[in-house]
Design a protein that fits this description.
By secondary structure, the protein is an alpha+beta fold. The chain is built from 3 helices and 6 strands, in the order E-E-H-H-E-E-E-H-E. Strands 2-1-6 form a 3-stranded mixed β-sheet, with no helix packed on it. A 3-stranded antiparallel β-sheet has the order 3-4-5.
C-alpha cells in the first residue's frame, strides 16, 4: 500500500516576500493498534493472540519505564528510543539544575529494518 500525501502551499519563513511554493505533505492513512499486531502475530505463529498481547503489553511497559529512567532502549534492528529535552540557558554551570529543564520528549531513531522498508515505499496523491 502506498504512502499518501496531500499538496500544500507554504511560504518561505526566511523570505516572507517570496512567492509561495507547493509541497507534498505526507498524511496518515489508517492505524495499527497493539491488538492488530497481536492478531497478525498469532496468524503467523502457533501462539494465541491473548498470549502475544500479554507479551507485547509487558514489553512496551518495560520500554516506557526504561526510557523514563533515562536508558537508551534498543529494540533490535527496528528502532531506538530515549529521552531528550530542552532547558533554559543559565550564565554559569552552577546555576543549572533540574528546574532548568523546560520540556522532555521522546527521541525515536528508526533502525535498519524500518529504514529499509521506507526505501521500498511508493507514494500516492490523496484524493
Amino acid at each position: 500500500m502506498p504512502i499518501t500525501f496531500n499538496v500544500i502551499q507554504k511560504r518561505n519563513p526566511q523570505d516572507p516576500d517570496a512567492p509561495q511554493k507547493f509541497y507534498a505533505d505526507i498524511v496518515g492513512n489508517g492505524e495499527t493498534t497493539l491488538a492488530d499486531l497481536a492478531k497478525y502475530a498469532s496468524t503467523v505463529s502457533t501462539v494465541s493472540k491473548a498470549d502475544i498481547l500479554a507479551v507485547l503489553e509487558s514489553t512496551f511497559s518495560k520500554i516506557a519505564d526504561d526510557v523514563a529512567d533515562g536508558k537508551i532502549v534498543y529494540v533490535g534492528e527496528y528502532f531506538t528510543l530515549q529521552a531528550g529535552g530542552s532547558s533554559e540557558g543559565r550564565d554559569t554551570a552552577a546555576e543549572v539544575n533540574s528546574s532548568s529543564i523546560e520540556s522532555v520528549r521522546t527521541i525515536f531513531r528508526p533502525g535498519k529494518m524500518i529504514k529499509d522498508a521506507l526505501k521500498l515505499s511508493t507514494f500516492q496523491k490523496k484524493g
